[in-house]
Inverse folding.
């Protein structure tokens, strides 16, 4: 089972996220993560969905998405030609004996400390999923208090764009 | 001049060519109904006994004509009562627009009286749905709803309109014409060339067609293709009536309760040409074993159906009429004498098996009961070009197997959803749409779910002959219990003593009991000249089986054609 990342341009209307995510639920397709946000034109939003499946499942998902009235464009992102990023915010215990180790990890991963208090420190990290996973693994022994990650966004390299309907 | 949202709805329905709507009033559509009252000489409203009946009536209207059926209901329970009717239309790709009222925008989300999120509820059972919160968008949203409903693969669309949008005022201009559907997809020359090559080199081609042939108006083209390719044809339940039942190349419905010859021919074919079908499990049996050693050309207007249930060798997204016509022009005129001989053998085999099964059933059945096929034969001989409607269960399958159908859109039945209680509403809608007589075959189980619509049929003087195959059991489930559950008849024996003839009379309809074929004949003749609903109650033995039966998840090798 491979992981696929698809970019979906949808009309920016109420209920569109339910329609897209509902299609996955109703037809029994599992989503790894889903993000949605604004695009360069106000009438459209962009949804990035990642899921695991075989080629047949991928094709079925594409065809079902293309059928939805509010969906304008669907594209499977070629991972070799795509910039994929995710944002992590993670809060760990701020203890004197491990503080330096955490700082080192932050530096090596090019993370940033965005909040600091006597009991906790919060790091921000952007990167591909594997980098985020590795960073979390590294911080685990120091006591993760809380974390959240955005799920991925993806954009094709070069001049090619997932065209929106103007 | 500014007019109200309610008036815009009515004007837009009329603009879209809607002459009849089915519905039920209520608090959040009272303004809409007030405008229907104003427009009563331009658009007819048929009040049903229950919103579900109204939804099925809109569905029957659409199936009988191909036009978009329209149903109107109030918020809350009015809207939720439509759900089964909308889902029925969705599964069978029937064009429908459901208009619901809702509480005013400022009351939405507060669990107000009779408020439900009908857009959320119907999202998975509509092609698309809308809630209109801005009156400026009302007319165009309704137009888009019609456009979506009738474009490509048709289906239901729901438009939810809060009460304050119905009462708000807005400038409105009617369009001169109904909306035009989105453009269809047509097969490329190259794809059809590949399909033609496959057909030319096939030795045992078989055409499996479905409801897409009816909605795509492609009957003549599919028959011409079958003639030129020298291929036998079978169909899904939804395909029935697309091709005349007595067409020499037609083997009948295939699948779980289909004809032996069509299921067997499909299993022996080296090429299946699938037109306007979705390879439902009821038509294919086990999808892993289905057509294992055989190529498949699948043509459908809905790209999402391609490779969905059964992977095709060649899948083409296209309008059926166009592609069947072009394909017929491309292929060579063929003769497959061996295959033809084999088909003739299968037909003979089917006849033998049917006769044997009928003999066994006759020996088994109680003397006071009528044979289902005899009932259908008697009624069909008298009913001429009536539209045939069924409910769901054994009677539905017997009718699908046996009733001679001549023209498209004359057989209305809930295929995909299998909705018991579909029939009477649909019959009322079909009669209202065409002015024709309808014959409804139902069972005592199904009829229990829609008999309230007798009241509507009486109020509309609907010429509908209702034939109840009354066996005192939920026969289809009982059949499964007999065959697969060791005769443990859990809750399928009805133990009721409803007198359906008296019940009909109590509703203001007419009715009678047919205890012999002669009595049935006499009653049917009377019913067919009566301008209103007429119920004929026919006793059927509780251990009649629908045969053949391809067991669930089975294949033609384990088809059951008789039961001791």
């Amino acid at each position: 089972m491979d992981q696929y990342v698809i970019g979906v341009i949808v009309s920016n209307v109420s209920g569109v996220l339910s329609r897209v995510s509902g299609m996955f639920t109703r037809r029994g397709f599992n989503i790894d993560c889903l993000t949605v946000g604004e695009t360069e034109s106000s009438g459209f939003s962009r949804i990035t969905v990642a899921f695991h499946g075989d080629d047949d499942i991928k094709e079925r998902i594409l065809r079902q998405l293309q059928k939805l009235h509010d969906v304008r464009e669907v594209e499977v992102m070629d991972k070799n030609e795509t910039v994929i990023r995710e944002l992590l915010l993670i809060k760990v215990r701020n203890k004197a004996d491990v503080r330096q180790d955490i700082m080192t990890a932050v530096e090596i991963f090019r993370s940033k400390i965005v909040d600091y208090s006597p009991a906790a420190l919060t790091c921000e990290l952007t990167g591909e999923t594997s980098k985020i996973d590795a960073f979390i693994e590294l911080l685990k022994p120091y006591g993760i208090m809380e974390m959240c990650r955005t799920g991925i966004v993806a954009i094709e390299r070069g001049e090619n764009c997932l065209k929106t309907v103007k | 001049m500014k007019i109200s949202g309610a008036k815009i709805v009515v004007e837009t329905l009329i603009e879209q060519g809607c002459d009849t709507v089915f519905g039920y009033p209520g608090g959040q559509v009272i303004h809409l109904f007030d405008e229907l009252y104003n427009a009563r000489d331009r658009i007819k409203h048929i009040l049903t006994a229950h919103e579900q009946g109204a939804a099925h009536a809109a569905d029957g209207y659409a199936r009988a004509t191909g036009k978009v059926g329209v149903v109107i209901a109030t918020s809350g329970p009015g809207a939720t009562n439509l759900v089964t009717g909308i889902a029925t239309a969705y599964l069978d790709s029937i064009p429908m627009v459901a208009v619901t009222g809702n509480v005013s925008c400022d009351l939405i989300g507060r669990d107000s009286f009779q408020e439900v999120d009908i857009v959320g509820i119907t999202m998975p059972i509509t092609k698309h749905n809308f809630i209109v919160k801005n009156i400026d968008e009302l007319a165009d949203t309704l137009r888009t709803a019609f456009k979506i409903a009738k474009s490509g693969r048709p289906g239901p669309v729901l438009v939810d309109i809060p009460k304050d949008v119905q009462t708000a005022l807005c400038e409105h201009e009617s369009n001169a014409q109904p909306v035009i559907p989105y453009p269809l997809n047509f097969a490329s020359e190259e794809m059809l060339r590949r399909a033609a090559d496959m057909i030319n080199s096939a030795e045992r081609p078989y055409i499996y067609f479905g409801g897409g042939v009816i909605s795509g108006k492609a009957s003549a083209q599919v028959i011409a293709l079958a003639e030129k390719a020298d291929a036998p044809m079978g169909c899904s339940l939804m395909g029935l009536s697309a091709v005349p039942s007595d067409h020499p190349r037609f083997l009948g419905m295939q699948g779980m309760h289909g004809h032996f010859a069509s299921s067997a021919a499909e299993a022996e074919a080296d090429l299946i040409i699938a037109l306007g079908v979705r390879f439902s499990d009821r038509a294919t049996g086990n999808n892993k074993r289905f057509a294992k050693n055989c190529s498949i050309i699948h043509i459908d207007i809905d790209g999402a159906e391609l490779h969905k249930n059964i992977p095709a060798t060649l899948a083409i997204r296209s309008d059926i009429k166009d592609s069947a016509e072009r394909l017929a022009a491309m292929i060579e005129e063929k003769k497959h004498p061996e295959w033809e001989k084999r088909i003739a053998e299968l037909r003979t085999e089917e006849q033998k098996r049917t006769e044997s099964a009928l003999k066994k059933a006759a020996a088994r059945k109680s003397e006071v009961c009528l044979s289902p096929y005899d009932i259908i034969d008697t009624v069909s001989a008298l009913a001429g070009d009536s539209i045939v409607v069924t409910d769901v269960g054994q009677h539905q399958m017997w009718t699908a197997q046996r009733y001679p159908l001549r023209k498209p859109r004359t057989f209305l039945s809930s295929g995909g959803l299998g909705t018991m209680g579909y029939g009477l509403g649909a019959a009322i809608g079909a009669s209202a749409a065409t002015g024709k007589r309808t014959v409804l075959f139902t069972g005592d189980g199904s009829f229990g779910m829609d008999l309230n619509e007798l009241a509507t049929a009486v109020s509309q003087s609907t010429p509908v002959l209702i034939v109840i195959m009354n066996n005192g059991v939920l026969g289809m489930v009982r059949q499964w219990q007999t065959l697969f559950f060791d005769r443990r008849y859990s809750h399928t024996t009805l133990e009721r003593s409803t007198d359906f003839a008296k019940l009909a009379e109590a509703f203001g309809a007419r009715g009678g009991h047919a205890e012999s074929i002669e009595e049935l004949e006499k009653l049917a003749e009377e019913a067919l000249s009566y301008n209103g609903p007429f119920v004929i109650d026919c006793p059927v033995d509780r251990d009649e089986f629908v045969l053949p039966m391809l067991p669930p998840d089975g294949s033609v090798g384990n088809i059951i054609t008789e039961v001791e």
User: Anything to note?
Assistant: Chain B touches chain A through 15 residues (CB under 8 Å). The two ends of chain B are 75 Å apart (CA to CA). The domain at 2-171 of chain B is CATH 3.40.50.970 (Rossmann fold). The mean pLDDT of chain B is 96.
